[in-house]
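Fold it.
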Amino acid sequence: MSSLTELLSRAYAARAELIARLQAEDTDCYRLFHGSVEGVPGLTVDRYGEQLLAQSFHQSLSEDELAEIRAFCQQHLPGLPLVYNDRSGANSRVANALTLEQQAVAEAGCTIRETGAQFHYRARHDGQDPWLFLDLRAARRRVQQMADGKSVLNLFAYTCGVGVAAAKGGASFVLNVDFAESSLSVGRANAKLNLLATRPRCLHSDVFAAVRQLSGIGQAERVRGKKMPPFPKLEARQFDLVFLDPPRYSKSPFGVVDLVNDYQALFKPALLATAPGGTLICCNNVAEVDGEAWLESLKRSALKAGREVGAVEWIEPDADFPSMDGKHPLKVVALSV
């Protein structure tokens, strides 16, 4: 059985070409080790600019394992501090304490770069997930390439990485929608880091309420006799490019997000908010969902809504997220509609 150091070295060597390409496109954040495929399930090691982040999701790292990772990182990326987040508990919340020096690094944060755009990063903050999901890099790159002169709607925007990429690519209008004001505040700060001809707008709203109004379906103020929580009132509007990246499951008074059983509940209004001849990019991060079957369900849903899917482009994650048997848990497809 290979040692942890051997597995890390093998993964690093396999990324040599990718890392050189990322550096050439002004990107300094990437995954160094993807344990679920590369030999240690639940372990990830990432570079975020001038910091490194190790996270364990299935079981805690031992002191010896953590020492191996530190030694490996200092050999290949000397001078970059490593923060360890133990997220092996049932709720994936960070459970381990850090030394005062490590805590200062984790909370101070830094600025990271991706395809020329800048983003804020902190290894530890009030939330749990990193402020930039690295497996979505290929999708953000594609949005940046497609966005010139287009209006863009970014649904479940989180910290607005896709919105910043669109604005960096020359979008004429960008609207980020998310229910979490804390995430949007990071997104606004991300936008300010960059010289953008168009400043992305942020809408604090339940995505169901927002996209139903934008699509023309409308959002009732009372549903089954029950008054809905307050929500921003919007005029119907269609966009040239819509990006839909929902969580696996969430529930609000406005609807249920369920990527396994009912992706169509979100897909239909997102489709109707996409201008004819535009592009709708859909994401599904559930590993057990079969990509081709999911795509066929989207095509059927589009036909029921009176629209037809034309060209289809699968956007595969970059090579720092290697596939398992040719399949990635994250599925991203761009649909010409």
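The CA atoms of residues 25 and 115 lie 5 Å apart.
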